[in-house]
Write a structure and sequence with these properties.
Blueprint (H helix, E strand, L loop, with lengths): L12 E6 L7 E5 L5 E2 L6 H5 L7 E8 L2 E5 L2 H9 L1 H4 L17 E8 L2 E5 L2 H9 L1 H5 L14 H18 L2 H5 L3 E12 L2 E12 L3 E9 L7 E9 L2 E6 L2 E4 L2 H11 L3 H6 L7 E10 L2 E10 L2 E7 L6 E9 L5 E14 L2 E11 L2 E2 L5 E8 L13 H4 L1
Parallel strand pairs: 3-5
Antiparallel strand pairs: 1-2, 4-5, 6-7, 8-9, 8-21, 9-10, 10-11, 11-12, 12-13, 14-15, 15-16, 16-17, 17-18, 18-19, 19-20, 19-21
Length: 387
């Protein structure tokens, strides 16, 4: 067998997929330490052009975690001129499930001139049957500043400021130093529902630690613990299998999820790319709300503000669901309590395309504002400590 065609499924393995409660999903990776030969050694430029041609092992380019092989120096030059077009897409994540599920670089397909890889044969089959479901191709037309009328923007801004005052003073919200939150969610597995405990720690402006305790997937009598840390460029996961650097694509995905919380949305309101506009009245259950469209980092959200209290009681946006396909997520917030002068929800109920989504729903056990946080929580453990 040609050494380039060795299946590399074991080189990039998802050790545990941890469905975190609001707001994000995280995983632990066992990544190859060196660049992995990709696409069974096929030339990616030829592959995009519809041809399967083995590359020359002496003509290579390493980009990210993958090593690519080329038939000629000319093909290599074409790749290097426009690598975003010819390399594996989505940062090497599974094209059906997205981050945090890694793909096998030998399990690939070409769609509209781009190469995608998958975590399993089933993922590849489902993607090829309906790629538009998993690439969110119909969601490119998000609004920009020109699509908001001056009147809608003014009303939207006023509603956002009202939500700020309903949550707490602007200075308190903007001046947060730390926030620690403990929550519980339920995950349905083949052998029944299990409880997942999550601890989320923010040290503003850019440090986050997520810890999770849950029954092991294979042996539910064993407790599994994992953590994910993002501290600037120092982002990593900690699992019983070791400490692994978090891939850039997965890190960005996690950061986007973190921004999709009412408190973080309000803290972002003064950012240069924060766009807002009133979208009229709507309903969340039986509650009438003022709808506000908010755009952050090019991502659109619709929040529902209770006109009687000014509180954010709902948040809707588009993202991958439990099956990997894109759809509409709605989170409804309730059980508001005052924590050190901030009024925050202690209950989150989530749906995906109108169906309950338990792992994204949560009951908040405790919230601590501006408490002391041990700096060691954001330090990467040594290899010796994890073996």
């Amino acid at each position: 067998m040609n050494f380039l065609r060795v299946n590399l499924a074991g080189a990039i393995v998802v050790i545990a997929l941890l469905c975190v409660t609001s707001p994000l999903t995280m995983t632990a990776y066992a990544q190859a330490q060196a660049a992995v030969p990709a696409l069974e050694g096929l030339d990616p430029v030829a592959l995009v052009q519809g041809k399967e041609v083995l590359g020359n092992p002496k003509i290579t380019v390493t980009r990210g975690q993958f090593q690519y092989f080329f038939t000629s120096d000319d093909a290599k030059a074409i790749f290097e001129k426009d690598p975003d077009r010819y390399e594996i897409q989505l940062g090497g994540m599974c094209a059906r499930m997205g981050a945090p599920v890694s793909g096998n670089p030998d399990l690939y397909t070409v769609h509209k001139g781009h190469i995608y890889i998958f975590g399993s044969g089933e993922c590849k089959t489902r993607f090829e049957a309906a790629p538009e479901k998993y690439l969110d191709e119909g969601n490119a037309g998000r609004p920009d500043d020109n699509s908001f009328t001056p009147e809608a923007k003014l009303t939207g801004r006023e509603l956002i400021e009202r939500a700020v005052n309903a949550m707490g003073s602007p200075s308190l919200i903007d001046g947060l130093a730390t926030l620690q939150e403990r929550s519980v969610s339920t995950q349905t597995r083949h052998n029944g529902d299990v409880e997942i405990k999550t601890s989320l720690t923010f040290v503003y402006p850019d440090k986050v630690r997520i810890e999770q305790i849950q029954p092991d997937f294979r042996n539910p009598t064993i407790t599994s613990e994992a953590a994910l840390v993002m501290s600037g460029a120092n982002s990593f996961s900690i699992t019983p299998g070791g400490v692994r650097t978090l891939p850039d694509f997965s890190r960005l995905n996690q950061q986007q999820e973190l921004k999709q919380r009412p408190l973080e949305i309000l803290r972002s309101r003064r950012a240069a790319d924060f766009l807002v506009a009133s979208a009229g009245r709507g309903k969340v259950g039986d509650t009438e709300v003022e709808q506000v469209v908010v755009q952050i980092d090019g991502r659109r959200h619709t929040i529902g503000i209770d006109p009687s209290t000014g509180r954010i009681v709902s948040l809707s946006y588009r993202r991958r669901g439990p099956g990997g396909d894109f759809g509409d997520v709605t989170k409804v917030y309730s059980d508001f309590r005052t924590v050190d002068s901030l009024v925050l929800p202690f209950k989150v109920t989530a749906t995906f395309n109108g169906q309950p989504w338990n792992t994204q729903s949560s009951t908040i056990a405790s919230i601590t504002i501006n408490g002391k946080v041990d700096p060691a929580l954001f330090e990467k453990p040594s290899v010796a400590k994890t073996q």
